[in-house]
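Hi all, long-time lurker, first post. I run a small reading group and we've been trying to get comfortable going from sequence to structure in the token notation. Rather than ask abstract questions, I figured I'd post a concrete chain and ask someone more experienced to write out its structure so we can walk through it together at our next meeting. Sequence below, copied exactly:
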Amino acid sequence: MSEDMNDPVTLSSLAASAPGDGTVRPAIMIVAFEGWNDAGDAASEALRLIRRASGAKKIPGISDDDFYDYQFSRPQVRRTASGKRVIKWPTTHMYRTELEDSPVDLVLLRGVEPTYRWKAFIAEILTRAEEENVQAVMALGALLADVPHTRPIQASVTSGDPGVRKALGVQESGYEGPTGILGVLAQVAEASGLPTLSIWSAVPHYVAQAPSPKAELALLHRVEEFFPLTIDLEELTEDALAWERGVNELAKGDSDIAAYVRQLEKAQDETELPEATGEAIAREFERYLKRRNRPDSPDVDSPDEPGGQENPESPESP
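-- Answer (accepted) --
Happy to help. Here is the structure in token form:
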């Protein structure tokens, strides 16, 4: 279904309307990096699932030279399907796919946050983005936060671009402090004229180890709102429920953790009471319907039902 002048403004329509040379379809680049921006591996794993669901194919990526300290980001020894031992070096891969019923393609960028030469690294990303006719950027991240594992996790959406905020009805992050590669990329991309959107989910800091399927699920629900892309989330939803049950058992065996979780639950519930308005409920119900009405969307219950944290503060949002 194509977007015409009567359709609401979307990230895709903003990208599709940008000037280009016409030789390559316009694209939106979704970015996630392992490391400081990726609590519980939620963002990088979400991007991996997007790649599988979209059928994106690998394209030339970013060179590895001089960007990594291999004593910090160590290479990994892996075995291939045939049993051969290989070395997997930290790197940044790019993939591209055509979205059906959309005026834009997706370019996916997944890598490890570099150790050195961030400015050169960002410059190389934006050079490749220009070659792929990228007209907008979506950054995925996950942060550790004081949130209870027992409550629904939702992902916040922010943008430093006034035009994007007005068109899509999203907020500007008020964060100040240390930043990671996503924060730098977002700021430089916006300064270069690329509309940028940041989506962050919160991971309970007392269960920070990977995986974090509940936070990953929150990110993917948000991504589905922006693209005609159906992602099979049935297995991930089951993983999220199993993860929550496992943390519940952990809390039962530690009275200090159990008391702390109850404290977080009370604080979050009290904070969200004013948000239980007709407008907020209608907004969440609309998101739910968008997911359910997509073809082939799994008919399963999700631990991320309406009522979760609406806007977790992000250390990376532009």
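A couple of things your group might point at:
The chain has a mean pLDDT of 83.
The first strand starts at residue 27 and ends at 34.
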